[in-house]
Amino acid sequence: ATPTAITVGIGQGARGGVLFKNATALENTAVITAVVFDKTGTLTEGRPAVTDVVAAPGLADERVLAAAAAVDRQSQHPLAEAIVDAAGTRGLALAPATGFDSVPGHGVTGLVDGVTVLVGNLRLMRREGVDASALTETAAALAASGRTAIYVAADGKALGLIAVSDPVRATAPTAVSRLREQDIRTVMLTGDQRGTAEAVAAATGIDTVIAEVLPEDKAADITALQDGGARVAMVGDGVNDAPALARSDVGIAIGAGTDVAVETADVVLVHDDPAAVSYAVTIARATRRKIK
Ligand code: ADP
Ligand code: MG
User: Fold this and answer.
1) 36 pairs with which residues across the strands?
2) Ligand 1 atom showing the smallest separation from residue 39 Cα
3) What is the pLDDT of residues 111-150, one digit of tens each?
4) What whole-number percentage of the chain has pLDDT above 90?
5) Which residues, at least 6 apart from 286, have a Cβ–Cβ distance to it below 8 Å?
């Protein structure tokens, strides 16, 4: 495109809440064939809240929530915040936790009252040798409604589940349908469990779901799509997303996302609206047509 057309395109983007960082970002956006969305904080609002606590037989809900919150008090994860908030709302006293450890893509561990407490997904339970089979059916039912089921264990035994819900952004279905009208394939890439991811995909119309991805593997999934011939834009908000944003042909950050995501990205969605992706494509394609 001519330098003038590019300047005009970047200006149009800015007025619509799409910040193209440079001419290359605009040019690459014109030719993308697939958009990969992170789930949490991108397709969803990123403000998870606890909806249910399911204790193992004979245990009080409060015991499950207090154990989880004691450990998650030391975590920065959005799910951890939801658990700590729920414990606070219920007025639970939290015991101090020591030896805190965070296992990326799995959850967190810590010592509470001399006992090792685990808070995380089924993968964490398996890794630590906890038999959680009594809870998996309930977890699947919670996931089917789009909620994330978090397992809690103490002293090697499953204590229960905490269900967390993160509402789908109101504009997410529009974001997906507009991209489809532009002949662009949509993909969800998430560390969350498959059932939850499938439910959010159904609510938004996303074509393909890649779930239960470890943070360090997100970039490799982008490469796999590129190897399949796709020109990929990735939309994300989190620290975990930065390597995948960098690997994509066009990295797009939600404006309210982490500093590292916003800095890594080629394009920033100022109003946190995933529907702005199709607007970016419209501008980029129009700019490209002004070449000759
Ligand atoms: P995402 O790709 O959605 O950001 P992560 O890779 O951060 O997901 O986490 C994957 C899963 O690990 C979460 O869905 C959750 O089940 C579990 N998990 C991670 N950190 C925590 C935590 N601090 N507390 C509870 N569960 C956690
Ligand atoms: Mg996220």
Assistant:
1) 187, 234
2) 3
3) 999 999 999 999 999 999 999 999 999 999 999 999 999 9
4) 93
5) 9
Distance, CA 247 to ligand 2 centroid (Å)?
Answer: 16
Give the closest residue (by CA) to ligand 1 atom 27.
107
Sign of CA dihedral 268, 274, 275, 281: positive
CA of residue 239 to ligand 2 center, whole Å: 8
Structural domains of the chain ordered from first start: 3-45+168-288 (3.40.50.1000), 49-165 (3.40.1110.10)
The DSSP element (H or E) to which 99 belongs, if any, is strand 97-103
CB 70 within 8 A of CB 112: yes
CB 121 within 8 A of CB 162: no
Q: How confident is the model at residue 291 (pLDDT cuts 50, 70, 90)?
A: low
ipTM topping 0.90: yes
Ligand nearest to the CA of 41: 2
Return the axis-axis angle of helices 78-89 and 61-72, rounded to nearest 10°.
130
What is the three-class DSSP state of 110?
strand
Sheet of strand 208-210: strand arrangement: 18-20, 267-269, 250-254, 232-236, 34-38, 185-189, 208-210
Q: Is any atom of ligand 1 closer than 6 Å to the C-beta of 244?
A: no
Nearest CA to ligand 1 atom 19: 107
Cα–ligand 1 centroid distance for 165 (angstroms):
13
Helix (H) or strand (E) holding 269: strand 267-269
**Atom number in ligand 1 closest to CA 191:** 2
The H-or-E segment that residue 54 falls in is strand 49-55
Of the ligands numbered here, which is closest to the C-alpha atom of 217?
1
Handedness of CA 82, 85, 255, 266 (dihedral sign): negative
